[in-house]
Amino acid sequence: MGISPDKPETLKKFDEKYSLNFTLLSDPDKSVASAYGAFGKKMMYGKEVSGIIRSVVMIDEKGVILGASYKITPEDTVPLALKALDK
Predict the structure, then answer these.
(1) What SS3 state is found at 16?
(2) Disulfide check for 55: which of 5, 38, 73, 79 has CB 3.0–4.6 Å away?
(3) Do the beta carbons of residue 39 and residue 4 sit within 8 Å?
(4) Interstrand relation of 24-26 and 55-59 (parallel, antiparallel or unpaired)
């Protein structure tokens, strides 16, 4: 599943455009992102800002965090998730 600060309507359009095969959840107040360390200080164009830190967090069916990768590129997101699922 994916979590984004975007509104549900925006996520629905994104899902329809890319035919995703997983659930997208909206986190507009960034509380979930903050809880998992995926929101905070980062550098953007040489300037420190607060924002979403692109991340993959692997959580099992019992809620145990199996691993996490932070500051990843969009291109690395799916391969990292698929690699985690193979384990």
Answers:
(1) helix
(2) 38
(3) no
(4) unpaired
Residue with tokens 């996520």: 11
Q: Is 30 helix (H, G, I), strand (E, B) or coil?
A: coil
Write the CA distances from 29 to 10, 19, 71, 81, integer angstroms: 15, 26, 20, 24
Per DSSP, the three-state class of 44 is strand
Its sign, for the CA torsion 60, 58, 5, 51, is: positive
- pTM for this model (two decimals): 0.77
- Residues 46-78: pLDDT tens digits? 999 999 999 988 888 898 998 888 999 989 888
DSSP assignment letter at 20: -
Whether residue 6 contacts residue 19, with contact meaning beta carbons closer than 8 Å, is answered with no
Q: How far apart are CA 28 and CA 5, in angstroms?
A: 4
Burial class (CB in 10 A: 0-12, 13-18, 19+), 84: middle
Number of residues that make up the chain: 87
